[in-house]
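call fold target=Thiol:disulfide interchange protein DsbD N-terminal domain-containing protein
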Amino acid sequence: MQIFHPALCATLVALHFLATPATADDLPPGMTAAGLRSGWQTATGSHMSALHVQLAGGWKTYWRAPGEAGVPPQFDWAGSDNVASVAVHWPRPQVFETNGMRTVGYRHEMILPLEITPADPTRPVRLSASVEMGICDHICVPVLLDLAAEITGPGAPDPIIAAALKARPEPHPGAARCTLAPIADGMHVRAEIDLPPMGVGEVALIELRGRPVWVSDPVTHRRGGRLISEADMVPDSASPFAVNPDDLVITILGEGGQAIEISGCPG
C-alpha cells in the first residue's frame, strides 16, 4: 500500500508513443519529455533499453520504495511480443523533505534501465508497457504512460543508460540482522547492520521484495560501527502478516553519492 494523498491528485493522463520521445503538447504539466531509449544487445543476448522521463524545474517522481507519501512506478508488460522477462534497474535515488515528510525519488529526470530477455533471441522484440507513476511539485499528478517499441539488431552503447547502470547502489554482503514483531496494523522491523559510517546524513530505506506494503519513514541511529534502523510495514489488510526475512531489502544512502544495498535480513 503506497500513499498518494487524494487532495494532491489532479487527473489521470494517458500517453501513447513509441521510442521517439513524446512532444510537449502530449505531456501533462511538469513532464517535458518521455520515451524509450533504444539501447543495445548485451553479450548474453538480452537487450538493454531504458525508460527516460524528463521533468520541468522543481518537479520530481518516485523510486521503487517512495517513502511515506509517494507512488512508485508500476509496470505492466502485457501485450509485448517475444519478451520472456523485463528487469528494471534502479539508480540511486534522492531523498526529499517536504512539510516534515520524507519521500524518495528523482528530480528533473528519471532514467530506468530495462533489461529485456527475449523468448527467442533470433526474433525481434516488441516491447509494450503501461507505466503508472506520479509526478509532483506543489501538486501531484498521477500519469499513465502507454509505451511501445520495436527492438531489433545489436544497437549501440548508450552512455546515458550506462551512467544510470553505474549509479545503482552497490550490493553489500555485510552482516544485517532483523527483528520482526507484530503491531496492530502490520509488522515492525528493526534492522541492525554492521557498517562503517558513510558520512553525514545517512539514510536507511527498508522495503519488502515482491509485495506492495506501506513502509513508515525509518528511524535510524548509530552505535559506533553498527547502524540501527526501525520501520513499520502495513499491508492493504492493515493487520499483522507473515514476512520472510529473505525478502527484506535495505538500501543505505550516504554522503558523496555513496549507496549500498543489502538483500535479505535474517533474524
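return ok
Residues 159-166 form the longest helix (8 residues). Residues 6-166 form a domain with the Immunoglobulin-like fold (CATH 2.60.40.1250).
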